[in-house]
Amino acid sequence: MKILQSQEFFLTEQHAFCLFMLGRQNMEEMHGHDFDEIVIVSEGSGFHIINGSVEFIYKGDFFFVSVNDTHCYLSTNNLSVINVLIRKDRSFFFLANIDKLIDIIKQNNSLRCTYDTSLTQDDLDKIIALTHIINAIQDDEFDELYFSAAETALLGIIDTLCQRARKKTLRAQPEECGRKYLINAIKHNYLRHINWEDLCDESRMTRRTMFRFIKDVTGYTPARFQLLFRLLKAQELLRTTDKTINEVAVNCGFLNTIRFTETYKKQFCYTPSLERKLMR
Fold it and tell me: Which InterPro entries match (predicted)?
């Protein structure tokens, strides 16, 4: 497994952070790094697997990846991200208490099962504008004014993320409908049987519009997307728990072990039992 090194990204030993905008992010193999990372999804979607746990990520999501984590991206669809890399062992010039704000972002990782903390379009526009400010600063001497401008813009980005994380909006509010409702529904109910007709009514979309939207967002038909999500969740359980293969099958929405094994092998080219054997 590749470990990304600070010297590949940070401009100098003085820099406590650096920032990149990555468009059309392709699938990336499992890797780690010797720095912390804040990831902001600015466009598109995909699956993010961190320490064996799988999650569907979509425009407006953001999360923290620590120096001890390993992660990768799978089945990306026009995925664009903003990466903020941070070295904890280096001091910022002016941001003395930024760790307290970063802790709020870390906590956001565990809120997804209950709350919707995704960024609005206005939030994203603000963050993208601040990103351009940082990337536009040119100063070979990297003096106090350089770090003052760069860290001021970074503080604006971090503050925007923290403000959104602290709002803790409930995922399924009665007045919520449309595309946001639909994304939340497929992100958090993929293990259950989804009645697509009911979901059309709840999201106030026609069946054709809903199916086209899901295909545009994920790159898959609704049924195929849900199946892939279930298989990735099954892979997570096989790798990170002691549940039996039958328990994994039931937990991930498969009718029986035989059907689960056939589908799993078709997707990953080996059986669930071999998956567990390889991990052990």
Answer: Homeodomain-like_sf, HTH_AraC, RmlC-like_jellyroll, RmlC_Cupin_sf
Confirm or reject CATH 2.60.120.10 for domain 2-170, answering yes or no.
yes
CB 159 within 8 A of CB 175: no
Residues 6+ apart with CB under 8 A from 114: 170, 171
Q: What CATH number was assigned to the domain covering residues 178-279? A: 1.10.10.60
Beta strand pairing status for 71-86 and 17-22?
antiparallel
Taking only the tens place, the pLDDT of each residue in 87-105 is 999 999 999 999 999 999 9
Token digits of residue 250? 């039931």
Domain borders along the chain are 2-170, 178-279
If we measure between CA atoms, which residue out of 207, 171, 166 comes closest to residue 186?
A: 171
Task: State the Cα–Cα distance between residues 106 and 35, nearest whole angstrom.
Answer: 14
C-alpha span between 237 and 226 (Å, rounded): 17
Do the domains 2-170 and 178-279 sit in the same CATH topology, yes or no?
no
Which amino acid is residue 226, in one-letter code? Q
